[in-house]
Amino acid sequence: MNNILIIHSGLQGITNACLEVARCLEQKNWTVYTATMKDQRKTIESNAFSYIELQKIQINYHKDVGLSNFIKQAVISKNKFYESIYNNLQFDKFEKILKSYNINALLIDMELHEYIMYSSKLKIPFILVNQWFSIWESPRNLPLQSCVSPSSTLENKLVWKLSSLQCFLKTAGHHIKTLGANRRNFIKYLANRVQFDMSTLQSYRFPLPFSYNGIQTISLTHPQLEFSENTTETLSYAYPMVFEKRIELETDQFTKDFTAIIKEKEKNKLTLIVATYTTMKGANQKGLPSVLNALAELNQSISIVSIGSHYSNKLRKEYLDKGVYIYSSIPQLKVLKHADLSINHGGIHTINECIHYEVPMVILSGAKHDQNGCAIRVLEFGCGLTSCNKNYSKQDILTKVNQVLIDPSFKSKITELNKSLQNAKEKEVLEKLIQKLLSLQE
Question: What's the pTM?
């Protein structure tokens, strides 16, 4: 029997996606365990999957040791400082866990460099898990931070150069701020210590501090949304992973409202719009009033809006009689099952869920990490309209929403993606990929 350990960051989006990965693999009678850097034991075990606790990765080294001690260690004894970080990762304990659970294969989030490098030392079969569209440079691909479509070869190269320069400047600034004692340099120290092949590392690319060349990787995205599917030989597509049966929390107020909303939708033949407003730190937060005011003016529609920390009872009451129901959070899958349109910030996991439920989109990019790149890929394929403008207006939103609702081509395009997704599930693309790449036996 194959015993597989999935190791990922524990951020909510990839946690939900990996729950579906685990479900698919368990259906093949493989035993699956999950470990996360952000504690997700409750979420994983409540959904009836097995959780293993591993030592967490440090990101900001100075927080635990205090600024003065950090400066002393960073300047005077950097290698000793890195060795203490290495010891804190407790790789010996990691090895014992792998043996005690008879783990014979790993799926590792491609941002978890420490576990990737140490696992390569152990010679245990592993695959990298990529939750984004392709991050590799090729003639027809573009960086995920950009909000432009591929153009001429020269223009595409210039976009890559600009992206690399921005990443270089960000890295250089962080190097100065941390006096050189940072995770990027520790990863280089670790690579040397475990004799990891440094030629596979790519600098100044999304995601920082490194990405990889030459290591087998599966992407949990839809290949038809890519500008180019042939960006690197080691990238394979497992298609979007949406765990339909995951436990979603909802308030009593939402449960009561939702029952009434669905009845009203069906009785009066209304369109249901779900808007999820990004709460990601540093993302574009300026457009909320425009979104709410646009939704309030729509005819023959009813809207459910999730706005996180922006929520207040006063705001809810202000828009309630305009057919706009505002919440701090919502059970997104439950709503998407009934939705006719999604307004979102361009998060890849929300896009995947829209494909799963055949919901066309209007993306108001949060302009954070890969959101611009996601937005432009949706626009290019034709399953939604997008805006990367940080100051989008009420009228701009109204125009886009009405166009997507009226023009049947958007629904047709999202249905096309859904059909190929369902076909991939029926053909067990994920399971066969993992079996092939890890040389596992059923």
Answer: 0.93
